[in-house]
Write a structure and sequence with these properties.
The complex is a heterotrimer. By secondary structure, chain B is mainly alpha-helical. Chain B has 5 helices and 3 strands; from the N terminus they run αβααββαα. Chain B has 2 domains: 64 residues, Winged helix-like DNA-binding domain superfamily/Winged helix DNA-binding domain (Arc Repressor Mutant, subunit A), CATH 1.10.10.10; 44 residues. A 3-stranded antiparallel β-sheet of chain B has the order 1-3-2. In chain B, helix 1 packs across helix 3. Chain B is globular and about 60 Å long. Chain C has 2 domains: 216 residues, Rossmann fold; 63 residues. In chain C, a hairpin with a 2-residue loop joins strand 9 and strand 10. The longest helix of chain C is centred in the middle third of the chain and has 17 residues. The chains are: A mainly alpha, B mainly alpha, C alpha/beta. Chains A and C meet through helix 1 and helix 5 of A and helix 2, strand 6 and helix 3 of C.
Chain lengths: 325, 131, 299
C-alpha cells in the first residue's frame, strides 16, 4: 500500500512540500537577519520594550525593516487548511468520482485496512508538513513576540501546537465532505468554508473563555501608566487584554459616554486628565489573561480541534465500514 | 487447420453448427480421416465462444463416430464407414432434386417462391420429427 | 450439488435505497465452472446485484454466499478469489499500464505478472502508456488482464462490452472465453443486450424491476419451452401457469409455453423458441413477486 498511496498522492505531497519549503527557506533567511537585530538574542529583550534602550532601538529597527513581513504573515493563516484540505479532499472523493473505488476495494486488501493506511499516511504528512512549517514560523516570530507578546491573533494562531490541530481539522472536514459529497472540488470548498467559520468563531468567541480571566482594578495613577521603580505594569503588553476601561470609586464600571463626559469636564477645567480622574477616585480596570497561560490555551484549543477532527474521521470510517459509499 | 464459422442468425444452436460443419466437411472431402481438429481452446479464442459449447460439439461428434478424441493429443477425424453417403445415393438425390426444381419452375414459381416452399416444408418435416 | 460447487448462492437478497427497492427477493443458486449471463433492461438492478455479490454493497435483506463464504465477512483470502470488472472498466487514468500491473501486484495475494504482460503484449498494448490515453477497447483489455492475473475462482463483470465497438467487443470476448477454456474460473457478467448470448453463456438469469423472473441452464430452458402456433382462440389458455406469453393476431395465436404442454387440438404447430425471443417474452411479463421460473439446477 505504501507505493500505492505515494503514487496516488505524490503530486499534492510534492506541491505542498515545495510550497512549505519555499516559504520556510524565505522565513529562515529573513528570520536570521531579524534575530540579529536584537542584542544577545530576542529572549533577552522580552518584556523590556520600555525599559532597555538598546532593546527599544532594536524593536524600532525591527518594525522599520521587517514590519512588512509581519503583515504578510497573515496569509499563513491558510497554511493549515491548504495542507489539510489538499490531502484530505481527494482521499475518498477522487476514488468515488472516478469509479475506481470499485477497483480499489475488490483487490485483496479489505476496505478498512485500505482506509486505515490512507488516513494514517495522509494525516501523518499533514502533521509533518504543518509541524515543520509552524516550527520555522514560531522561530521567525521570536523577536516580534518579545516585543508584542504571543497572544495576539497573528501570533497565537500561527505558533505552537494549534496550526497542526487546525490542519488535522481541515483534513477531517475535507475527507468527510469528500465521502459524503463524492466530489473532490466541492469537498475542498466545504473544507475551506468550515475552516474559516470554525476558526473565526473559536478565536473570537471561545478562546477568551478557556479560563477565567483576571481583573485588575487600581486607581488611575497620577504620574502616568507606570511608577518610577521600573516595575512592569499589570497587565503588560505580553498579556492578552480582553477588556479594559474605567470604573468609579465603588468599582462600578463606567460606560464610555460617562468617561467622555469626565474627559470633557477635565478639558474645560484645564487640568491634567489623570489628576482629574485620580481626584475623583476613578479606577482603571483590565480584564486579561496573563502571558504565562499561552501554552495552556494552546493545549485547550488544539485539543478542541483535534477532537472534532477525530469525530469527523470516525464518521468516515463508520460510513465505509457500513458500505454506505 | 480446419476453421469453424458461426452464424448467429441461423437459429441453429452453436454446438450443432460446429457438428454440421464437420459433417459437411467430411462429406465433401475437405476433412480427411486422420486430420486433427483444432483444440477446444483454439476454437474458443478464435470464435469467442463458450468452451462448454465446443466440448459438447466434440462429444456429439465422438458419439456419432465422426471423430475420436485421444487424451493429450487432440481430436482426429475417423475413417468413415460407407454408411455415410455413397456416391450413387448422392447422385440419385441430386437428380431427384433437379427434376423437382424443373417441375416447380414449369409451374410458374420463381426463385424466391421455390426457396420459401422448400424452407417451409423442410421446417415442417423437421418439427414433425421433433414433436 | 455440494456447497462448493455453487459459485454463487443468494437467499432472499434485497437492497433498499431512499428512492425504493433496487433489488428484491433474489434467490439464486448458480453453478461453478461455466459462464452465467445476468440479463435485464437498464435500471433492472443488475449493477446492484453484482455489487452485492462482490461485497461493494451490503444487502438490506437476505444473504449472499460466494464460493461457500458469506460475503459480508471479507478477508484477504476470500477477496482474492473473486475478481471484479466494474462498468466502464475504471482504471487509474494517470497510471501507466505497467503501474496498473504494479497496483495489482501490490494489492493481491496472488498475481501472475507474466501472464498479464504476455496477454497485453499479444494485444499490442504498450506498458508505458498512461491508461487514460488508451482506446476504450484497450482500457477494457487492461482491466480484464488485471482481473484475470489474480487468478480468481469467480470473475464478475458489469456490462463489460456495452461501450465497446464491435471489433473491440469480439477481441474482449476472445480473451475472456480463452480464460474460461484454460479452466478454473466461473464467469458472471451482466448485459442489457440479449443478442449473441447463446454463443457465450451456459446459464442465464433474467432480472426485471429488481426481481428475478427466470433463471436456469440455457440448454434446459430451450428444451423446456416451445412456441405453439395455431388458429386464434379466445378461451383462457393458461394451463396451470404453463403459458408464458400469448400473442394474438387476426387469424392465429402464438403461445410460448413451458414444459412442453402441447394441446391435442389439431392445427397447432410446435416450434422451438430462440433464446432471444424467450428472454424478451419473460422481460415483457409484468413482474409478480412469486413468478420466478427456475430450471436446470436442483438447489
Amino acid at each position: 500500500m505504501t507505493w500505492l498511496i505515494w503514487r496516488q498522492h505524490r503530486t499534492e505531497v510534492c506541491v505542498l512540500g515545495l510550497l512549505v519549503g519555499m516559504f520556510g527557506i524565505a522565513l529562515l533567511v529573513l528570520g536570521t537577519q531579524a534575530h540579529d537585530l536584537c542584542p544577545g538574542g530576542p529572549a533577552r529583550c522580552a518584556g523590556e520594550a520600555g525599559i532597555n534602550e538598546a532593546c527599544a532601538a532594536s524593536f524600532r529597527r525591527l518594525d522599520e525593516e521587517y514590519g512588512y513581513v509581519e503583515n504578510l504573515l497573515a496569509g499563513f493563516y491558510l497554511v493549515p487548511v491548504v495542507i489539510g484540505a489538499f490531502l484530505g479532499a481527494p482521499l475518498l472523493a477522487r476514488e468515488l468520482e472516478d469509479g475506481t473505488w470499485q477497483l480499489a476495494w475488490t483487490q485483496a486488501v479489505p476496505r478498512m485496512r485500505w482506509l486505515a493506511a490512507k488516513l494514517a499516511a495522509l494525516a501523518g504528512v499533514t502533521v509533518t508538513l504543518t509541524g515543520m512549517f509552524t516550527a520555522v514560523l514560531t522561530w521567525f516570530r521570536q523577536p516580534f513576540d518579545a516585543w508584542e507578546g504571543r497572544f495576539q491573533y497573528d501570533a497565537f494562531d500561527l505558533e505552537g501546537l494549534v496550526p497542526v490541530a487546525y490542519a488535522l481539522f481541515a483534513f477531517g472536514v475535507a475527507t468527510a465532505a469528500g465521502a459524503i459529497l463524492r466530489r473532490s472540488l466541492p469537498a475542498f470548498g466545504v473544507a475551506f468554508g468550515a475552516f474559516l467559520a470554525a476558526r473565526m468563531s473559536v478565536a473570537l468567541l471561545a478562546r477568551p473563555a478557556y479560563a477565567t480571566p483576571l481583573t485588575t482594578m487600581e486607581p488611575v495613577p497620577v504620574g502616568g501608566s507606570k511608577d518610577q521603580a521600573g516595575h512592569r505594569p499589570v497587565p503588560s503588553f505580553a498579556d492578552w487584554m480582553i477588556e479594559h476601561g474605567y470604573a468609579d470609586a465603588t468599582g462600578r464600571r463606567l460606560s464610555w459616554t460617562e468617561y467622555y463626559e469626565l474627559e470633557g469636564a477635565a478639558n474645560r477645567a484645564g487640568t491634567n486628565l489623570n489628576q482629574f480622574l485620580h481626584a475623583r477616585g476613578i479606577q482603571q480596570f483590565g480584564v486579561y489573561h496573563p502571558a504565562d497561560r499561552f501554552w495552556t490555551f494552546q493545549l485547550i484549543e488544539a485539543a478542541l480541534f483535534i477532537a472534532v477532527a477525530a469525530i469527523l474521521i470516525g464518521v468516515v470510517v463508520w460510513r465505509v465500514r457500513r458500505r454506505m459509499i | 487447420m480446419f476453421v469453424f464459422r458461426l452464424d448467429t442468425h441461423s437459429g441453429v444452436p452453436p454446438y450443432l453448427q460446429l457438428v454440421q460443419q464437420v459433417r459437411q466437411a467430411v462429406l465433401l472431402g475437405f476433412l480427411q480421416p486422420g486430420d486433427r481438429l483444432p483444440l477446444i481452446r483454439e476454437v474458443v479464442e478464435d470464435l469467442a465462444i463458450n468452451p462448454n459449447t465446443v466440448a459438447k460439439a466434440y462429444r456429439q461428434m465422438e458419439q456419432e463416430n465422426l471423430v475420436t478424441g485421444r487424451p493429450g493429443q487432440g481430436t482426429f477425424v475417423n475413417e468413415q464407414q460407407s454408411a455415410a453417403m455413397s456416391a450413387s445415393t448422392y447422385t440419385s438425390l441430386r437428380r431427384g432434386l433437379a427434376t423437382w426444381l424443373r417441375r416447380a419452375y414449369a409451374a410458374g414459381l420463381d426463385e424466391q417462391a421455390v426457396n420459401a416452399l422448400f424452407t417451409s416444408v423442410h421446417r415442417q418435416t423437421r418439427n414433425e420429427d421433433v414433436a | 450439488m455440494t456447497a462448493t460447487e455453487f459459485a454463487l448462492r443468494t437467499d432472499g437478497v434485497g437492497k433498499r435505497y431512499r428512492r425504493g427497492w433496487a433489488l428484491r427477493d433474489c434467490t439464486l443458486a448458480l453453478p461453478a465452472g461455466g459462464v452465467i449471463a445476468l440479463v435485464g433492461p437498464n435500471g433492472a438492478g443488475k449493477t446492484t446485484l453484482l455489487r452485492l455479490v462482490v461485497g461493494l454493497l451490503a444487502p438490506s435483506t437476505g444473504t449472499v454466499e460466494v464460493l461457500g463464504h458469506d460475503v459480508t465477512a471479507s478477508t484477504p483470502q476470500t477477496l482474492s478469489r473473486v475478481g471484479f470488472l466494474a462498468q466502464d472498466h475504471p482504471l487509474y487514468k494517470r497510471f501507466t499500464v505497467a503501474e496498473m500491473l504494479r497496483f495489482g501486484r501490490a494489492c493481491n495475494l496472488r498475481f501472475d505478472q507474466g501472464l498479464a504482460e504476455r496477454r497485453l503484449a499479444k494485444l499490442g498494448i504498450p506498458l508505458d502508456r498512461r491508461a487514460g490515453t488508451l482506446s476504450g477497447g484497450q482500457q477494457a483489455q487492461v482491466a480484464l488482464a488485471l482481473a484475470l492475473a489474480k487468478r480468481p475462482d469467480l470473475l464478475v463483470l458489469d456490462e463489460p462490452v456495452a461501450s465497446l465497438d464491435p471489433l473491440a467487443r469480439h477481441e474482449f470476448l476472445q480473451v475472456l472465453m480463452g480464460a474460461v477454456a484454460e479452466g478454473g474460473v466461473t464467469v458472471l457478467f451482466s448485459s442489457h443486450v440479449v443478442h449473441e448470448l447463446e454463443r457465450v453463456c451456459d446459464h442465464l438469469v433474467v432480472l426485471n424491476h429488481g426481481r428475478v423472473t427466470l433463471t436456469g441452464d440455457i440448454d434446459t430452458l430451450l428444451a423446456e419451452h416451445r412456441l405453439l402456433v395455431g388458429p386464434r382462440t379466445a378461451t383462457d389458455l393458461d394451463r396451470a401457469g404453463a403459458v408464458v406469453e400469448a400473442v394474438h393476431s387476426d387469424r392465429h395465436t402464438t403461445l410460448l409455453v413451458r414444459d412442453g404442454a402441447i394441446p391435442a387440438a389439431p392445427g397447432w404447430q410446435a416450434q422451438p423458441v430462440a433464446l432471444e425471443d424467450l428472454v424478451l417474452a419473460y422481460l415483457r411479463r409484468p413482474s409478480e413477486p412469486s413468478a420466478a421460473v427456475t430450471s436446470g439446477v436442483a438447489a
